[in-house]
């Protein structure tokens, strides 16, 4: 596990979902490969398609690699909420 990706979780346990999420968003190809070997491709694809905290750029790339329709992912399916300032 790359400790620099989990600086905010020093006291809390890192779940497989969090590790895969951080690998997709911030890890390099070598770390993504390591996470896929560690947890399996099925778990990786489940996080890729079901997690809303992933960057659209990363999701788009991995969807193209695995041949998945990006509209089937949570990152592209649900539009982000519109923020309106208080007046």
Describe the model.
With 87 residues, this protein is mainly alpha-helical. It has one domain (14-77). It has helices at residues 16-26, 29-39, 41-50, 56-66, 74-77. The longest helix has 11 residues, at 16-26. The mean pLDDT is 86.
Labels describing this entry:
87 residues, 5 helices, globular
Sum this structure up briefly.
54% of the residues lie in helices and 0% in strands. It is mostly helical and 87 residues long.
List strands and helices in order, with pairings:
Elements: H1 16-26, H2 29-39, H3 41-50, H4 56-66, H5 74-77
Structure annotation, total helices: 5
SSE pattern, N- to C-terminal: HHHHH
Major beta-sheet overview: none
Given helix and strand content, the structural type is mainly alpha
Q: Which percent bin holds the helix content?
A: 40-55%
Low-confidence stretches: none
The beta-strand count equals 0
Head-to-tail CA distance between termini: 45 Å
On the 0 to 100 scale, the average pLDDT is 86
Shape designation: globular
- What's the number of domains? 1
- Strand content bin: under 5%
Q: How large is the radius of gyration? A: 14 Å
């Amino acid at each position: 596990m790359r400790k620099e990706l989990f600086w905010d979780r020093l006291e809390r346990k890192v779940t497989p979902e969090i590790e895969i999420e951080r690998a997709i968003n911030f890890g390099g190809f070598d770390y993504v490969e390591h996470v896929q070997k560690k947890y399996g491709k099925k778990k990786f694809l489940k996080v890729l398609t079901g997690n809303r905290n992933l960057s659209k750029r990363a999701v788009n790339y991995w969807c193209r690699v695995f041949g998945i329709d990006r509209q089937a992912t949570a990152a592209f399916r649900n539009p982000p909420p519109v923020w309106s300032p208080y007046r």
